[in-house]
Design goal:
Layout: H1 9-15, H2 19-29, H3 36-52, H4 56-87, H5 89-100, H6 105-109, H7 128-136, H8 147-202
Helix pairs in contact: 2-3, 4-8
């Protein structure tokens, strides 16, 4: 039996083709232990057993699923949330001009129902951007409304967009991946049935 400390590619290359032996090895030497290092080894051992049972098509499915998972939980959410942040950049510049205008103090300190909507100015400075932002985020703002608070709310919005896109993308992709895997299993089961019938008819009577 291979020593527990030798677990790795070299170790598994000798025994991974005998999945029942690997399973008994893991159960005997790894799973009873509670240390973090041996828990990691247990997961690696279990993963080696599972992967060793995959055929060529299943391994292609596994690799594509792993690559798709990385795309939908990291790359795609960063792309979408980055585009949302870029689109709000001009608004950020304009509202910063409002915060720099001393005449906008009442729009950062007074209740919203006591304020009158100021005239719009594209580059900011008229207090319109502060007023509009407060109107759409009234429940989240604590007076006095400051630039620091605005940045925190925008960061929270960025993370909300990131995790929302990640959750929707990942769940949708995993559902599609599971559908592909299940369809492959069904097709394989049907083909195996035809092969079994063909073999039975070819047997001498």
């Amino acid at each position: 039996m291979v020593a527990c400390k030798e677990i790795g590619p070299r170790c598994f290359s000798k025994v991974v083709h005998q999945s029942s032996l690997v399973f008994r090895f893991c159960k005997r030497f790894l799973w009873p232990s509670s240390s973090k290092r041996n828990i990691y080894r247990s997961i690696s051992c279990w993963g080696a057993v599972v992967l060793s049972k995959l055929n060529g098509w299943q391994r292609i499915w596994f690799v594509l699923t792993a690559l798709g998972t990385v795309f939908f939980i990291v790359i795609y959410p960063l792309k979408i949330s980055g585009e949302a942040r870029s689109s709000s950049f001009s608004y950020r510049m304009s509202i910063n001009s409002d915060f720099s205008n001393p005449s906008c103090t009442s729009y950062t300190n007074d209740p919203l129902n006591k304020l009158v909507e100021p005239p719009f100015r594209e580059n900011g400075g008229s207090c319109w951007h502060i007023f509009t932002y407060r109107r759409y985020h009234e429940k989240d703002i604590i007076l006095p409304f400051t630039k620091i608070q605005y940045d925190k709310l925008e960061d929270a919005e960025w993370w909300k967009t990131f995790f929302t896109v990640m959750a929707i993308g990942a769940v949708s992709f995993w559902a599609f991946s599971a559908l592909i895997y299940g369809s492959g299993k069904i097709v394989g089961w049907i083909i195996a049935g035809f092969q079994k019938s063909k073999t039975a008819t070819e047997l001498p009577r």
